[in-house]
Design a protein that fits this description.
Layout: H1 3-6, H2 10-17, H3 21-41, H4 61-73
């Protein structure tokens, strides 16, 4: 599921995230800022970044938030899954 494909379908965004498209977009603004700030200093493994990565594989913030929301919702143990 890709956020760009469902962002204009209110019912699919609500079903996938539990948020309305407006709420999701508001969350996305904050998430993008914090994601860019974190990712500029640390790798996905949490290690301190040695140099800046210019060709990031995970650059779509909307997709990242959608994936985190779905992973957290479908976690069998009830604990959040924060894999991206």
């Amino acid at each position: 599921m890709y956020y760009d494909k469902i962002r204009h379908r209110h019912s699919q965004v609500l079903a996938a995230t539990g948020l309305t498209p407006a709420e999701f977009d508001a969350l996305l603004i904050t998430f993008k800022y914090h994601w860019d700030e974190y990712y500029s200093h640390f790798t996905l493994e949490g290690k301190v970044r040695q140099r800046i990565s210019y060709n990031s594989v995970v650059s779509d913030s909307g997709q990242n938030v959608l994936h985190i929301g779905i992973s957290e919702d479908q976690s069998p143990s009830g604990t959040p899954c924060y894999s991206v």
